Amino acid sequence: MEAGDGTVAERVRADSVRNRRLLLRAATEAFAECGVDVPMSEIAQRAGVAKGTVFRHFPTKDDLLVAIMMQLLDRLLGTADRLMRAADAGHALRDFMAHGIGLLAADRAFCEVIGRPSLQHAEVRDAIDRLCERAEDLTARAREQGAVRADITGTDVVLLLGGIHQTAQPLLDREPRAWQRFLEIAFDGLRARNSAVLPYPPPARLRVADPAGSPHAVHT
Amino acid sequence: MEAGDGTVAERVRADSVRNRRLLLRAATEAFAECGVDVPMSEIAQRAGVAKGTVFRHFPTKDDLLVAIMMQLLDRLLGTADRLMRAADAGHALRDFMAHGIGLLAADRAFCEVIGRPSLQHAEVRDAIDRLCERAEDLTARAREQGAVRADITGTDVVLLLGGIHQTAQPLLDREPRAWQRFLEIAFDGLRARNSAVLPYPPPARLRVADPAGSPHAVHT
Amino acid sequence: MEAGDGTVAERVRADSVRNRRLLLRAATEAFAECGVDVPMSEIAQRAGVAKGTVFRHFPTKDDLLVAIMMQLLDRLLGTADRLMRAADAGHALRDFMAHGIGLLAADRAFCEVIGRPSLQHAEVRDAIDRLCERAEDLTARAREQGAVRADITGTDVVLLLGGIHQTAQPLLDREPRAWQRFLEIAFDGLRARNSAVLPYPPPARLRVADPAGSPHAVHT
Amino acid sequence: MEAGDGTVAERVRADSVRNRRLLLRAATEAFAECGVDVPMSEIAQRAGVAKGTVFRHFPTKDDLLVAIMMQLLDRLLGTADRLMRAADAGHALRDFMAHGIGLLAADRAFCEVIGRPSLQHAEVRDAIDRLCERAEDLTARAREQGAVRADITGTDVVLLLGGIHQTAQPLLDREPRAWQRFLEIAFDGLRARNSAVLPYPPPARLRVADPAGSPHAVHT
DNA sequence: AATGAATGAGAATTCATTCAT
DNA sequence: TATGAATGAATTCTCATTCAT
After folding, report:
1. Domain membership flag for residue D1
2. How far apart are CA A63 and CA A55, in angstroms?
3. C1’ E6 / CA A103, Å
4. Among all residues of chain C, which has the CA nearest to that of D199?
5. Is residue C164 part of a domain?
6. Do C188 and C144 sit in the same domain of this protein?
7. N or C: which end of chain B has fewer CB within 10 A?
8. A115: domain range?
9. pLDDT per residue as tens, chain B (220 positions)
10. Residue A220 has what DSSP assignment?
11. Are residues A196 and A109 in the same domain?
12. Residue B220 falls within a domain, yes or no?
């Protein structure tokens, strides 16, 4: 009974919870539209609060950015879990991709965060790892059902989310669903009938900062 | 009198030309490595000149960025022209994409510039338009030879350059050629045997900032 | 009904008194350890109350600082009063100084407050004036008993408290009693056998902020 | 010939050198008057330059503070060196102290910097170490000539500089030479005729940050 | 009365751009 | 023309103080 039990102690927080929500929404929008370089003051303004309030909720800009990314990733993880129960694994994988790209389609910051090692926080990296694992679960089923090539991995799928989104991005302002075209193309490329071996082995992991050697030799 | 060949004025101009070249090279590197937020002072330092000299050659940072982008686009245009003479049009189209992605693979700034309407200068947009036209020429031949789907356009191909690059980007630090994998997947998706109609019509143009209506109705 | 002794209003007041005490203790510690720049939030936390409560008791940070200083000064005044009853006036004066420096030795803020005119509140200045008077009473007895030079005043003694403390301060972290060494040196300097006239007349008052002229001409 | 040889290369710097001097002067004043918390903008304004110019010359506020401290310490070191050649070592030691206190008398920041471990930069600490060594050289001669107690060290002398300054500080606004009075008292306390053993052993070093144990046992 | 969320003035610092030399 | 010093707007973040609950 989230709204019915307001004791005094909880009611004090009601404003704060509302502001936090406003902030996350405003920040999601602002990052999506303007990228990670959007000033905190802009986010505060969009949320209708003072600058100080942003910092009360998120002590640093990075914390806010991480929170936004985690929101996105958590939703994706939830979707992946849900789709594991679908009968048609190929369909489920496609739906997962569609959902993921749909989320990204509104988000300029994601590309920047994913691409920049300097912005990679442990929490976000871990969530991406988990996402790759879930995506691998979905992909494994699709492989077993013969819906996709044998050498496609969950990490491929996650990478393609960002890539397909990026492909359509220049069009999104005017045609917000244009990414569907490129998802279709990419998914056709993943299908099992494309039997020729891919010219480069599957990626192992997305961890960027690890100074260790690459996980497998370069394939000529 | 370095080479006995000129007046003082000419020598001065020669220095200037040399500095411009140094600057373009340094800026290309710096933008590629660090993205568009790299400070002008960093570029000046890499070029071995003073900050003022950068601004003499490029009155604003945007001008420099445009010059870099034009360089990149010019090279791509040249490649497209050259490949028009290849016999196998499907092969040629693939080579064009490989060359384009290879250029982008070393360039952090390109994704950022393409994605940000605020950074889109008329000159760059025009060059991208021209690139789409050349890509369309290559694509038309490939379509005619049955190498790719009937409803694939040059603009699709140009958009895919950025998208495929973005797909592989998180891997590029450790595996600089990982994009080849995703080019193969995408190109398989473009092939003619994928005959099902795409769920979204081909994009007409890439002009981002124009507030005019979209060129065709959204496809449900 | 904690002790069965009061109405709700009285209990509330009791809490308030308790909080005030907690706050003074916490603030004394915090100012002593960290200096005047310690944030109010730190003080609230140390006291185990919310920030708002600090401001209910002390409307501004300055008010709190003044309260702390008054505490310190009151203790010193009490010590001075007590020592007026000692038989050996020289000994008493020394004990007064030792007690004062001991208090300061644990207090980073005092030096900062004393040194900064901007922080000098009327109340604190008045207390310092009173302290100088009490110190003068002690000093007068010591002068009469031949324990210190004839031209030493109470104000000299009060100033020396801060000075001796400051002398030892860099050592206090590792050797909390190091000030005893410098008190001994200074007190030896005050003794009557040092009969040569001091090269500068005794200070009249400590009032710092008054823009009026100096109380006596500069001695060349 | 500092001013006579202005080549082009050096003339370019002429402004800069002048601004640096203005800045050091303004900062010395500002720190002396207001303490280390004076805003950089205040220093810029006093120097008549823009904020950015301060940061061009001193990349961080700490750098500026260190520069100011080093200026002061260098002057003191120079004085110590000069006074080593004086015949009367007691007189020389006193002159050293007078000179040091005179420098400090105009400087509020010194006390704060000396007292706050967090502000102790290696460079400053090293200079203070060197100053203690020079002071020890002067003190050793004075000890040998019987001018001061046998157990007074150079570190004592350096500590007394700050202490005597602090003693007089509240008076300095109105009576800039009041410190002479307290120097006389302190120096009388140092004299050899005060033969009673001091109640605390001499300090070994001023290094504050070292987490090692204290250099000698506490003397009761 | 207590709480702790919100406020907003201000601090250090960065960097594109201008301009004197 | 090249230089690099100066500028000042913008940005992140802090903290005393106010105020709704």
Report:
1. no
2. 9
3. 32
4. C181
5. yes
6. yes
7. C
8. 61-210
9. 444 455 656 666 677 888 899 999 999 999 988 888 899 999 999 999 999 999 999 999 999 999 998 998 999 999 999 999 999 999 999 999 999 999 887 776 776 666 555 556 788 888 989 999 999 999 999 999 999 999 999 999 999 999 999 899 888 888 889 999 999 999 999 998 876 788 888 887 665 443 333 333 333 3
10. -
11. yes
12. no
pLDDT value for D218: 33
Domain match, A20 and A90 both? no
CATH code where residue A184 lies:
1.10.357.10
Domain boundary among B36, B59, B82: B59
Domain count, chain D: 2
Contact residues, chain B, for A159 at CB < 8 Å: 167-168, 170-171, 182
A23 and A69 share a domain? no
Q: From A162, which residue of chain B is nearest by alpha-carbon distance?
A: B167
Interchain contact, A200 vs B181, CB within 8 Å = yes
Q: Return d(Cα D124, Cα D70) in angstroms, integer.
A: 6
C119, C62 Cβ separation under 8 angstroms = yes
Chain F footprint positions (protein CB, under 7 Å)? 1-21
How confident is the model over D88-114, as pLDDT tens digits? 999 999 999 999 998 887 666 666 666
For residue A189, give the nearest of B112, B188, B203 by CB distance: B188
Nucleotide closest in space to A53 (CA vs C1'): E6
Q: D45 and D81: one domain?
A: no
CATH number at residue B45: 1.10.10.60
pTM of the model: 0.83
Question: 3-class SS at D178?
Answer: coil
Neighbours of chain C (3+ CB pairs under 8 A): D
The answer to whether residues B67 and B46 belong to one domain is no
Q: Select the residue of B173, B186, B193 nearest A185 (Cβ to Cβ).
A: B186
Residue C75 located in a structural domain: yes
Domain closes at, from D16, D35, D59? D59
User: In this model, does residue C211 exceed pLDDT 90?
Assistant: no
D44 and D132: one domain?
no
Beta bridge partners of C191: C148
Token pair 């996650």: residue = A158
